[in-house]
Amino acid sequence: MREHPVRLMIVDDHPVVRDGLRGMFDGLPDITVVAAAADGREALALARSTEPDVVLMDLRMPNLDGVGAIRRLHAAHPATKVIVLTTYDTDGDVSRALAEGVAGYLLKDTPREELHRAVRTAAAGGRVLSPAIAGHLMAGKNQRQKDPSPRELEVLRLIAKGAGNKEVARTLLISETTVKTHLKHVFAKLGVETRAAAVVAAIERGLL
């Protein structure tokens, strides 16, 4: 059991959201809101003076966005745990945040009690994910475990030889849009984000 209450900082660019979140933690004996920031830069400044144990961090903010703030916060305060609290659950947002080593990723419709539990879990060194985010990750994992289809590999072979989208489309008698779709699927299945990385990953897996 902790000797002192969890020191919590809230970071969100909407005043109503900040006030609402602060109200959710009012009166709790084991969690104290020590600061509330409107953007990433303010969060970094307040973190230096308040030394929070846990930060509830929005992602899309002016001046310095959530991912940038998380990166700098972890560098300056490695012991501080960050829970992303956002309305966005797109794959890009999730992967960028998780890549920064956050302790959790929750959506803003998370019930009050679950939010309390998440902060306590993060402070204790655990990790929390909303069911929707967990589903995203599982779907992504399952997708990445699949190999590209024969047609997708045809596209990748041509890309490996230096062909551009137009040349691939002309060679395979398909549209450029279809080429882009095939590449998007290849990237997802191989867990990469660029053509070069896709070629390397395919070679390493013996697909090319």
Automatic annotation (TrEMBL):
Molecular function per GO: DNA binding
Cited InterPro entries: CheY-like_superfamily (IPR011006), NreC/VraR/RcsB-like_REC (IPR058245), Sig_transdc_resp-reg_C-effctor (IPR016032), Sig_transdc_resp-reg_receiver (IPR001789), Tscrpt_reg_LuxR_C (IPR000792), WalR-like (IPR039420)
Occurrences of domain HTH luxR-type (ranges): 141-206
Pfam families from the UniProt entry: GerE (PF00196), Response_reg (PF00072)
The keyword Transcription is assigned to this record: yes
Key word Transcription regulation present: yes
Sites of 4-aspartylphosphate modification: D58
GO terms of biological process kind: phosphorelay signal transduction system; regulation of DNA-templated transcription
Annotated keywords: DNA-binding, Phosphoprotein, Transcription, Transcription regulation
Residue ranges constituting the Response regulatory domain according to the UniProt record: 7-123
Protein name: DNA-binding NarL/FixJ family response regulator
Organism: Nonomuraea endophytica
